[in-house]
Amino acid sequence: MSKHLKLDIVSDISCPWCIIGYQSLKQALTKLAPNISVDITWQPFELNPNMPKEGQDITEHLTEKYGINVEQSEQNRDMIKQQGLELGYEFGNRGGGRIYNTFDAHRLLHWAKEYDKQTELKLALFDLYFKQNGNPSDHQSLLDVSQRVGLDRKKTKQILESNEYEKDVRELQRHYQSAGINSVPAVIVNNRHLISGGQPVDVYEQAMRQIAQEA
After folding, report:
1. What's the CA gap between 111 and 149, in Å, rounded?
2. CATH code for position 164
3. Domain total for the chain?
4. Residue 94 forms part of a structural domain
5. What tens digit of pLDDT does each residue of 98-153 get?
6. 8 A C-beta contact, residue 106 and residue 112
7. CA-CA distance, 76 to 44, in Å (whole number)?
8. Which of 19, 81, 127, 193 fits as disulfide partner to 131, beta carbons 3.0 to 4.6 Å?
């Protein structure tokens, strides 16, 4: 008998482990189909909520935030790139790139859920940031990406130029923080089971099988 699971993925657009985790999860779900199907909702999390729109040099940011040196930062970036390649995701060259505020992008993602475009928009935003070296706080970039996935450009512009969905996104952020989510990605299954971090394919597969059996 087929089982259906509800997945809430708490993540940020500028988090490389979030796209790595999703690539792993996607491969696990392919192995589990058709016995296990899922409904995915992307939930907001900001790694750097106080980041100004102009952003910060990524190497400078990582060395300040995590207390690592430039060499360690480059080693981490190389490791992330390699893991991405192994899962079919090719990161662009973000050496010398910047990290940006992502709140407006989260507002658009919240809206996109109404049109069943959330995952499509999320993946396009990952690509904007990680593959195209783009700025996910730039309204022109957000307009272009939203239009590309089939969302109404005029409505997108209206949202970006207002505070629409701000309250909803802030409430969701507080909800997951109060639930103990302080790092991402975090996959919450059926509102009960937490899988933390960008896990390997077999970890997601085993966890989903076990949860489905218990459901």
Report:
1. 13
2. 3.40.30.10
3. 1
4. no
5. 999 999 999 999 999 999 999 999 999 999 999 999 999 999 999 999 999 999 99
6. no
7. 24
8. 127
